[in-house]
Amino acid sequence: MLLMVNVDNVAGEAVPYIIEKLLELGAENVHAIPAITKKGRPEFIFLIDTARENARTIGEFLAREVGTLGLRLFQEAEHIKFDYQMRKARLVLQDRGLSLALNVKVIRGSQGSVLSAKVEYEELKAAVDELAKAGVSISLTALRKVIEAAFLKGESEAYQGLKVVLE
Q1: What pLDDT was estimated at residue 63?
Q2: What superfamily does domain 84-166 belong to in CATH?
Q3: How wide is the angle at C-alpha 71 spanned by C-alphas 49 and 69, nearest 5°?
Q4: Quick one: fold of 2-74?
Q5: In the 8-state DSSP scheme, what is residue 84?
Q6: Is the confidence at residue 59, as pLDDT, over 80?
Q7: In 28-135, which ranges are E strands?
Q8: What contacts 72, CB < 8 A, 6 or more positions away?
Q9: By C-alpha distance, which of 145, 153, 154, 107 is closest to 162?
């Protein structure tokens, strides 16, 4: 189900904390959208994807934390989930003896083709740092593109002497 809450008295700095707590309380996903409400007041609209049984706990947390007077429940909202699997991409820099494994979320279509591949951000960031230590200068954006393109093509990819091996 989808819960919606609008709050016009929360500081922007508190939003990451609120999102983290909502996820701990069982939300599968949370979006905080900045908006302007009556009388020109700034507000945030929280869209919270969660199971029905979490609604009361989440509502009580929001009442305590931001003073909300209630929640809007969208029970008929249909959520189509795509199957995905976590795969490994191994970055190999043979001339320097470096090998790094990164998790990649791969979504497949009904015919089995790869629709999307997303490398995990924290692992990607750490890999850029490790590659820099090994003398390879590559941007986070470029490394992400190389890894994700390898999964989309279904083959290993090479870039600046760095080989991406799909596992």
Answers
A1: 92
A2: mk0293 like domain (3.10.20.300)
A3: 145
A4: Alpha-Beta Plaits (3.30.70)
A5: E
A6: yes
A7: 29-36, 42-49, 72-74, 84-93, 98-108, 114-119
A8: 3, 4, 5
A9: 145
Q: What does the mean pLDDT of the chain come to? A: 86
- Higher-scoring residue by pLDDT: 78, 116: 116
Domain ranges of the chain: 2-74, 84-166
What lies within 8 Å, CB to CB, of 5 at 6+ separation is 45, 46, 48, 62, 66, 68, 70, 71, 72
Q: Exposed (0-12), middle (13-18) or buried (19+): which is 150, by Cβ within 10 Å? A: buried
Structure tokens at 11: 């500081």
3-state secondary structure of 115: strand
- Alpha-carbon torsion 46, 60, 18, 125, what sign? negative
Q: Return the pLDDT at 91.
A: 86
Contact 19, 65 (CB under 8 A): no
